[in-house]
Amino acid sequence: MNYLAHIHIADYSQTSIVGNLLGDFMKGANKDNFNQALHQGIALHQSVDSFTDCHYSVLALKPLFAQYRRFAGIVIDILFDHILAKHFTQYHSLTLAEFASRTYQQLEKEKQLLTHANIRLPERFNVSSQKMIEMDWLTSYARASSCQQALKRTGQRLKRPVDLSLCWPLFATHREAFEQAFHHFYPELLLHVTRLGKTFNAEE
């Protein structure tokens, strides 16, 4: 999953926003001084990604991107953030704009507390999370143009760059199938998160 979904899941599960985002920034990072909340958030992020990659609704969509099959999972993650953004009040009591504003405040506060506790976060995460706040990434996922830009930027960061924004017309053509798949998948993901949360609570 992508940023919006991981942050929504952090809120849903009442776990660390920073921890849930860190899962994409841990390659080569030192987490020896991380607290339990960060470790739980990272574990939840990884479990969410594994559940997503193996879910039948996601697997059924991947053949649509035959030309980009190696990157289909990445593309679907971003497209699912777009669908979540467009239907956000179906999964949260706040509007997307309200949720984003609150999230940015919580994220800055959590980062400050971690700094005061002498917990160092990966620099890539610090840069990315600051851009998220300054450029309001969370609400941007509701806009088609922003998602196309996100796809393009993601493709440019690959070892062999590819223009993933070219996947957008395929999504537009099969949008109904994507939306049906998401609305089947996401409630099952939230149920998985609930069950995992009980495991975390039992370990405390």
UniProtKB/TrEMBL annotation:
**InterPro entries from the entry?**
ACP_PD (IPR007431)
**MF annotations from Gene Ontology:** [acyl-carrier-protein] phosphodiesterase activity
What domain of life is recorded for the organism?
Answer: Bacteria
Q: Name one GO biological process term.
A: fatty acid biosynthetic process
Keywords on this record? Fatty acid biosynthesis, Fatty acid metabolism, Hydrolase, Lipid biosynthesis, Lipid metabolism
- Identify this protein by name: ACP phosphodiesterase
Pfam families recorded: ACP_PD
